């Protein structure tokens, strides 16, 4: 028996096209970046995120230059019509041995770097992100992980960027899961970070949170919904959220936190769809586009949508199939059943699209709609995304204006085309 929990959102809640993004490590690469960027564009990815390292720009004390690799990367990005996020960050060897910009001398050097990079790349960047994962204390970035030091950096950096590149938007935070759980993100909001920037960026990885299903997209989305509500309460207004890193690595049983590549693909589909149900989330950048290496047991080598040789993993084809809905579809409502099945309704191009899945074992679930509907159920099965939208073996059965069809739901979402028909959420009475 299903118990319908309905969540309705106004179409305007998304505030524009949802950003489907991916992280890259291409900006500082000396080789040809065009093939990887072309694959991103072909998958419907709209924005790429990369590091505009201070250390790459200031190779001699006091002498700043724009690396040739950056110019090549940005030119190719512009040619392909891709958007971007560039990170202002990390230390420089000439300033207290790569220390975070906390001491005044390091801050002064960082400010000069910010001034130069934002002036030189003016008009070529959609989002500047102020530093990356400040909440982590790393030996090579020795320094204070306290939120006050980071808020001071944002306070000093934001006006520089606004002045030099006024059309670009500003993100702050890039807070890790550990930082979120320890209250770092909340302290930023309480400290007034949203008075200085346009969005709060988060890196809410859950791949190692396996206890109680904590690493699943469904658990993850519920956590993010609660976080968003808490941030809004603290700020007294909606806090726009940008998930500038998120993903699961496909190391399988070679790593305690690993999952199989097929599961990675299913998790990608469900996480992107569920991200659109949280009104404050404006976009998500999958980490990352290309595997960072060839070691099948190394997590950092297995987050990618494609392998080092650019051969696609299952997740790539899934994102390619879903990206039109993710980018332009409007989330309307959802129902979560007592049997742990999910139905999410979207509108796209004047038609209704229902995403439905059931984590765990495959089971039969009845889909209800207000007709007229007849013939086979037309759907896209994300387990076989290359097939596109097809007529399934299931058929609509109607009594008057009440139509239903039984479908086998599993871990991969089905994208069911309802056309102009009205979706009827499952209720105990219908079942």
From TrEMBL:
<dbReference type="InterPro" id="IPR017853">
    <property type="entry name" value="GH"/>
</dbReference>
<dbReference type="InterPro" id="IPR051923">
    <property type="entry name" value="Glycosyl_Hydrolase_39"/>
</dbReference>
<protein>
    <recommendedName>
        <fullName>Beta-xylosidase</fullName>
    </recommendedName>
</protein>
């Amino acid at each position: 028996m299903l118990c319908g929990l309905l969540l309705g959102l106004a179409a305007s809640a998304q505030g524009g096209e949802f950003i489907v993004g991916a992280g890259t490590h291409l900006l500082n690469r000396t080789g040809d970046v065009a093939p990887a960027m072309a694959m991103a564009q072909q998958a419907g990815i709209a924005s790429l995120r990369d590091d505009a390292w201070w250390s790459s720009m200031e190779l001699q004390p006091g002498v700043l230059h724009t690396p040739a690799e950056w110019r090549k990367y940005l030119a190719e990005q512009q040619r392909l019509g891709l958007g971007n996020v560039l990170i202002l960050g990390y230390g420089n060897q000439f300033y207290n041995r790569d220390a975070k910009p906390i001491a005044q001398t390091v801050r002064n050097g960082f400010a000069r770097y910010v001034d130069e990079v934002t002036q030189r790349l003016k008009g070529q960047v959609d989002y500047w992100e102020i530093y990356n994962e400040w909440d982590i204390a790393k030996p090579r970035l020795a320094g204070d992980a306290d939120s006050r030091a980071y808020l001071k950096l944002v306070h000093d950096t934001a006006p520089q960027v606004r002045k030099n590149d006024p059309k670009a938007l500003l993100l702050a935070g890039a807070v890790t899961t550990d930082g979120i759980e320890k209250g770092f993100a909340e302290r930023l909001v309480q400290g007034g970070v949203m008075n200085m920037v346009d969005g709060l960026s988060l890196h809410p990885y859950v791949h190692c949170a396996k206890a109680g299903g904590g690493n699943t997209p469904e658990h993850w989305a519920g956590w993010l919904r609660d976080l968003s509500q808490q941030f809004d309460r603290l700020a007294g207004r909606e806090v726009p959220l940008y998930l500038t890193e998120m993903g699961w690595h496909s190391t399988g049983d070679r790593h305690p936190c690993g999952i199989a590549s097929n599961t990675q693909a299913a998790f990608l589909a469900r996480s992107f769809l569920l991200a659109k149900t949280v009104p404050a989330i404006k976009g998500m950048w999958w980490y990352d586009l290309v595997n960072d290496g060839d070691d099948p047991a190394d997590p950092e080598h297995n987050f990618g949508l494609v392998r080092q040789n650019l051969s696609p993993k299952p997740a790539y084809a899934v994102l390619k199939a879903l990206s039109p809905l993710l980018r332009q579809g409007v989330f309307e409502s959802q129902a979560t059943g007592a049997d742990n099945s999910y139905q999410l309704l979207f509108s796209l191009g004047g038609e209704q699209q229902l995403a439905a899945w059931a984590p765990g074992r495959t089971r039969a679930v009845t889909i209800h709609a207000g007709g007229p509907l007849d013939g086979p159920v037309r759907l896209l099965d994300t387990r076989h995304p290359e097939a596109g939208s097809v007529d399934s073996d299931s058929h609509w059965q109607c009594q008057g204006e009440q139509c239903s069809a039984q479908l086998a739901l599993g871990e991969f979402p089905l994208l069911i085309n309802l056309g102009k028909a009205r979706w009827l959420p499952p209720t105990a009475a219908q079942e």
